[in-house]
Design goal:
28% of the residues are buried. The radius of gyration is 14 Å and the shape is globular. Strand 2 and strand 3 form a beta hairpin. It has 134 residues and is an alpha+beta fold. The protein has a single domain, classed as Histidine kinase-like ATPase, C-terminal domain (Heat Shock Protein 90, 2-Layer Sandwich), CATH 3.30.565. The protein contains 4 helices and 5 strands, in the order E-H-H-E-E-H-H-E-E. A 5-stranded antiparallel β-sheet has the order 1-2-3-5-4, with helices on one face. The two termini are 19 Å apart. The protein binds adenosine-5'-diphosphate (ADP) and magnesium ion. Magnesium ion (MG) binds next to helix 2.
Length: 134
């Protein structure tokens, strides 16, 4: 493993591929099973795409986490974009400003063990997700 943490600047489609690749490598090295690796990569892909689509650019930071005898991964997506107008509705899959299904955030929440959104109009958005190895 590198050093159990990493960072990707998200500015282009290619960077989204980078976030997927880093997430996959980290999850493989920590020993997640293939189903959970797919869940993690899908969630990361969606959150990176949201940063790219709605904020233009931002950052993904990941690190390995441990809690007692558990180990897992956390991913933090940060941007200085417009913020999410109605985060509660967005988490319920009831809010979308794109022609997407508006199910990205709600889907992501189901794939991961924990998700937190901090968002401020005109300031930006931070989305944190966690997955524990089973
Ligand atoms: N990083 C972000 N910055 C600003 N708005 C966002 C961000 N991520 C999501 N949103 C807003 O939340 C809505 C719901 O996002 P999501 O659940 O991924 O569905 P979709 O991307 O299909 O619309 C988006 O349409 C957008 O308005
Ligand atoms: Mg989306």
């Amino acid at each position: 493993m590198s050093d159990g943490s990493g960072r990707v600047e998200i500015r282009s489609e290619t960077d989204i591929l980078q976030t997927r690749q880093q997430a996959r490598n980290a999850a493989e090295q920590i020993g997640f099973d293939t189903t959970d690796i797919t869940r993690i990569v899908t969630a990361v892909s969606e959150l990176a795409r949201n940063v790219h689509l709605y904020a233009g650019e931002g950052t993904m930071k990941w690190r390995q986490i441990t809690d007692n005898d558990q180990t897992g991964l956390t991913f933090i997506f940060e941007d200085n974009g417009p913020g999410i107008e109605d985060p509660d509705a967005a988490l319920n899959g009831e809010f979308s400003t794109s022609d997407g299904l508006g199910r990205g955030l709600s889907g992501t929440q189901t794939l991961m063990d924990a998700m937190e959104i901090e968002t401020e109009q005109g300031e930006g958005t931070t989305v944190m997700v966690k997955k524990w190895r089973s």
